[in-house]
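Help needed: design a sequence for this.
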């Protein structure tokens, strides 16, 4: 389970709208509860560093990942996962997404249609990045 608090949720949706019709990306910071549930308290909006058509691809710059890691440490949080948007495309976890994912981390995919938020889903990849499973997502009503 991954829960996203209102403040980071606004950051995610704002970034997804601003980057439309390109994919946006960013990093989710927060805490893991005693029951294993994840709670995102900070979302870091990052630049899509993919050098090509960004309509259906994104890439996080290593410097942004390093910076998010530092912020997490400073705030006593963990990097819980990543988010990106799918402009005019369902919020599914694509083969490309799976190939570029890491085990353990949550992957939030946000569908933006005609520039507006439509729906979101979360996924986790298995150890070998051959399969992803949906993760229960709790987010504010939009
Ligand atoms: Zn994707």
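Sure. Designed sequence:
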């Amino acid at each position: 389970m991954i829960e996203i608090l209102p403040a980071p949720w606004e950051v995610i949706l704002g970034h997804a709208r601003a980057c439309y019709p390109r994919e946006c990306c960013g990093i989710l910071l927060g805490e893991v509860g005693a029951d294993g549930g994840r709670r995102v308290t900070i979302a870091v909006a990052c630049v899509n560093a993919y050098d090509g058509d960004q309509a259906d691809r994104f890439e996080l710059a290593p410097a942004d990942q390093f910076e998010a890691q530092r912020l997490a440490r400073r705030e006593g949080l963990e990097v819980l996962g990543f988010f990106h948007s799918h402009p005019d495309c369902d919020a599914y976890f694509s083969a490309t997404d799976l190939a570029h994912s890491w085990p353990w981390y949550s992957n939030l995919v946000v569908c933006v249609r005609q520039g507006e938020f439509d729906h979101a889903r979360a996924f986790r990849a298995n150890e070998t990045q051959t399969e992803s499973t949906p993760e229960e997502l709790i987010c504010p009503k939009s």
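Helices lie at 6-19, 62-75, 95-99.
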